[in-house]
Amino acid sequence: MSTKPYRLLVFDWDGTLMDSANKISSCFQAAARDCGLPVPERKLVEIQIGLSLEKAWVNIFRALDVPDNAALVERVTHRYRDYFLDIDQTPMPLYEDVVEGIQQLDQSGYLLAIATGKARRGLQRALLETELEKNFVYSRCVDEAYSKPHPKMLLDILDYCGCEPEQALMIGDTSYDMEMAANAGVDGLAVTYGVHPESQLRPLASRGCVASFSAVMDFFDSNEKPRLFEAKPG
Question: Quick check: 194 and 146 in contact, CB under 8 A?
Fold first, then answer.
């Protein structure tokens, strides 16, 4: 149970709220194939989820001993976006209990925000399709700040919401989320149903690990009431 009155809850998107690993892996593999590159195995792709696309591709190239340059990274990144936004139709459901949980947290008075490795275009489409946009006061994407684990996304969110680091909790499924939280001076709660294993998350998650979104909800003491802003920023 939580023992401190957080005012701001910041969620990662892919692997935390949305089960998108299948589609992301498929799009990485298809983009590499189309560009005449070695096709990365799914495990290699999954450990990059949460990073910027450019950083992910550089890591993949390094693992596969593929010489990289800016032009190649740009070309394969562009092809990935073609697949992700238009071509690949792999389903991306929200995890069980996410809709109800996010609505409950919003109605309880917490400020909810998103810090994601997605680009703005992709996040905006996901928010509209899931009808969750109204529940979040702010979001920062990788094309608006530095890639995780740099703290810029979280610092921007804190500034917008008028919160101090100790008033915020970062909830995510990767070591990059937990490292970003630590770099911003923010507590981190890790979920183990995403792409990074619990053994990798537990040493980095200052508030521990949970195995489902219902367990995320259980983390918050039912008797705890957040100190509310008079009005949400906007």
Answer: no
Give the model confidence (pLDDT) of 79-122 as tens digits.
Answer: 999 999 899 999 999 999 999 999 999 999 999 999 999 989 98
Question: Structure pTM?
Answer: 0.85
Give the Cα separation of 183 and 223 in Å (integer).
30
- From the number of C-beta atoms within 10 Å of its C-beta (0-12, 13-18, 19+), residue 104 rates as middle
Q: Is 14 a catalytic residue?
A: yes
Q: Which of 14, 106, 173, 187 is catalytic?
A: 14
- How long is the chain? 234
Active site residue 159: no
d(CA 138, CA 233): 9
Taking the C-alpha atoms of residue 25 and residue 56, their distance in angstroms, rounded to an integer, is 12
Q: For residue 114, which amino acid is it? A: I
Q: Give the ranges where 83-151 is alpha helix by DSSP (H).
A: 98-107, 120-130
Q: Which helix (H) or strand (E) holds 61?
A: helix 53-63
**Mode of pairing for the β-strands spanning 209-210 and 187-191:** parallel
CATH number at residue 169: 3.40.50.1000
Q: Which of 87, 116, 133 is the last residue of a domain?
A: 87
Catalytic residue among 12, 156, 177, 187: 12
132, part of any domain:
yes
Per the domain annotation, does 229 fall within a domain? no
